[in-house]
Amino acid sequence: MALLTQFMTFFVSPFSEPSSHAELNNFLKSRRIINVEKRLIDGERGTGWMFLVEYSDNEGRSSPIFCL
Fold first, then answer.
1. Structure pTM?
2. Average pLDDT, stretch 26-30?
3. Which of helix, strand or coil describes residue 13?
4. Secondary structure (3-state) at 4
5. How far apart are CA 45 and CA 31, in angstroms?
6. DSSP single-letter state for residue 63
7. Could you tell me what percent of the chain has a pLDDT over 90?
8. What is the spatial distance between Cα 13 and Cα 1, in angstroms, rounded to a whole number?
9. Which candidate, 22, 1, 3, places its Cα nearest to that of 12?
10. How much is the pLDDT for 62?
């Protein structure tokens, strides 16, 4: 059986509310993480880290989910 993975993105700024950090941490704790890529970016939403999280979905769905 093939491993089905999905992707989720997060933007975390050092100046953002602690809830944005908590959202990322809670997501990471509740999933089987395959890979995490991070990049420091300076964009429309300000300067911060963009995380691309690849994770295994226990329910077997294979379509990606994007959240900014």
1. 0.72
2. 94
3. coil
4. coil
5. 27
6. S
7. 56
8. 38
9. 22
10. 47
